[in-house]
Design brief:
The structure is a homodimer of 391-residue chains. Chain A is α/β, with parallel strands linked by helices. Chain A is built from twelve helices and 14 strands. The relative contact order of chain A is 0.13. Strand 9 of chain A pairs antiparallel with strand 9 of chain B, so a sheet runs across the interface. Chains A, B: Its EC number is 1.1.1.3.
Chain lengths: 391, 391
């Protein structure tokens, strides 16, 4: 079933194989497995539900569908005694769904950290390697086909967060919604952030993290400083990686191309073969002690903050005061960059400088409270950059 | 079943659960799955064969068994309609058997490169990081429990080659024996080899490689210069990694701890769960065009050669002549290290120096022929170091 019969797909198929009738597969008793690749959520949900109710197994590559309505579909599949597989829905060619649910099935998962968006990872690699700014790197990526014309879902963390929700459900058997993820994108970063990270011996990655803590499950997708000695920092370009920590295995890694036609086909076909071979998927069992996501304000981390401020007396003191009286303890505060020439053409204005602050471990909520105050600072220019610092 | 009933295993088990009667599990009709963890080949082969013939499924962590007698066991399992799984037999906690045979089942595998021995990888990481020589790094690794008292099978490549044989059978559906692997160890390396690699922007890894070529399957386990920009070069310490190249997926990676009690348990339990869930393993189908290993002399690569020679006139010329007349084309020849002080105490002797040669792509057989000639050189001191250079 395709939407547009007239589109040239570069294939020679016998007449009648391609059709545009959604009901035909559902009503055909000879069809045993439906593969959903139409994308979008409402129509795909209806299609998959109808397939399951008609007694077909389902294979899908639809990440948004599984993120938003996966639990309903899994319940329906169980009710119908049918299987739903979605390896291609998370990180394309990275065989992480099978990895988590089958290869690591004996482990109690304690955490995972992952690079789940190839576009962002490519942009960050280029910015680090060439010193380019975000806009420049994006233009190059769009030219080379590594970024969409509208890259917002890739660079603002949405895409990675949808994948993290799916993975964390599988890994922790927890009920998780998109809103449980502390979210930040890479679109506010500048070349100097990557340069500063490098000086600290770190790479910047859009890291998706899920951590089992005593307070609950911490979930975040944010630009993160990762030590260069950590091999995750070495995963560059469009490659995705998921590093899973389990009580038995220690840390196991799955990596590969996160998107693309052929890697997606590899995952869809693996699912098809698995269904055809009658391999029942493991489903995350409800754990003995269910774990809940912590509120995003309760995420605890070290933070990197970069402010652009006019270089007036007291600006350091004002910032330090806001952070300190918000209960945020500072590890260091550094006036980092040289005054930016282009912003200082009018000699009467004081120069604009970057101030980088590294905090000790603190709750994200304190930072949010502090932000309400620093937004009112007269000397602040633009939105400050917030990154996590991996431990 | 255990060998020694009196050994304290730190477990409280009801009486009668532990016993030392090999036949009991085989003859018990209630036993459905046998897990073989006794090690060694002949006794394990007999046990697994008897279990299969008695209608039990088998899970084993025995690498040597699968390398040496796997094909016989798989044939017997098929005959008996039973399953044999061995995830723990290859790279411990790295879920590569499931990865190759299930997640990547839709791919035509074109090659794989892997780090399959944690001891060697730890030693090479330490030598690179600290400048220590082989003996010094080994002593430290033994002290810290990363190397056995007798590490020969780890450092001479045997262990990694056994794993490569198993992986390459799965990946290429080919008949492969241990002797088909071009084999070299890390025990001849010295600090200066790692230093020289670093100057070239490379890391040294004991790399296990299988490559589909027009001439057949190239198989090697040898110390190899890997570019530092290649993320495989960043995998250090006891971690193992298998990077698989497939026509659809591009390159997918599986990584984790290659050995250890818990990672092995993780893999054995995953196999047990898979058998219990009745997931039939995929077995490598006989490919339409069977591929055969190329003779080890036909392995084609760039090579790094390091000779220790007394610094006499003509020694460069002698070496260059031997290599040239053996048909080996040189990319560069460098007198690398300073004269080694300790070998030059007697002022009458000419100093001993290291000469490093980088070749263009050449067949290993030519190198073997040249070796027969350079071994006769009067100025040669000790065995030359031979490494591959990854493309």
């Amino acid at each position: 079933m395709v939407r547009d019969l007239s589109k040239n797909r570069g294939l020679n198929l016998p007449d009648g194989v391609l059709h545009d009738d959604m009901r035909r597969a559902i009503d055909d008793p000879d069809v045993q497995i439906g593969v959903e690749l139409i994308g979008g959520v409402p129509a795909a949900f209806e299609l998959c539900s109808d397939l399951l109710r008609a007694g077909k197994h389902v294979v899908t590559a639809n990440k948004a569908l599984i993120c938003e309505r996966g639990p309903e579909l899994f319940a329906l599949a169980a009710e119908c005694g049918r299987t739903i597989r979605f390896e291609a829905g998370v990180a394309g060619g990275v065989p992480i769904v099978a990895g988590l649910t089958e290869s690591l099935a004996a482990n109690r998962i304690t955490g995972l950290r992952a690079i789940l968006n190839g576009t962002s990872n490519f942009l960050l690699s280029r910015m680090a390697d060439t010193g380019a700014g975000y806009a420049e790197a994006l233009a190059e990526a769009q030219e080379r086909g590594y970024a969409e014309a509208d890259p917002s879902m890739d660079v603002d963390g949405t895409d990675a967060a949808q994948k993290l929700v799916i993975l964390a459900r599988l890994a922790f058997g927890a009920e998780i919604a998109f809103q449980d993820v502390s979210l930040g994108g890479i679109d506010g970063l500048d070349a100097e952030d990557l340069q500063f990270a490098k000086e600290l011996g770190c790479a910047v990655k859009l890291l998706a993290v899920a951590n089992r803590t005593k307070r609950g499950l911490e979930l975040s997708v944010r630009p993160t400083l990762v030590r260069q000695t950590d091999a995750v920092g070495g995963i560059g370009g469009p490659m995705n990686v998921v590093a899973v920590r389990g009580d038995l295995v220690g840390e196991a890694w799955f990596a590969g191309p996160g998107a693309g036609r052929e890697p997606t086909a590899s995952a869809v076909l693996a699912d098809l073969l698995a269904v055809a071979a009658d391999r029942p998927p493991f489903h995350a069992a409800t754990p003995a002690e269910p774990i809940r996501p912590v509120p995003v304000d309760d995420l605890v981390s070290r933070f990197y903050l970069r402010f652009r401020v006019t270089d007036r007396p007291h600006v350091f003191a004002d910032l330090a005061d806001i952070l300190g009286s918000s209960g945020i303890s500072l590890a260091s505060i550094i006036q980092h960059a040289e005054p930016l020439a282009e912003e200082n053409e009018d000699d009467a204005d004081p120069p604009v400088v970057s101030v980088v602050v590294m905090t000790h471990r603190t709750a994200a909520g304190r930072l949010r409270a502090a932000a309400e105050r620093w937004e009112k600072l007269e000397s602040l220019r633009g939105e400050p950059v917030v990154m996590l610092v991996a431990d």
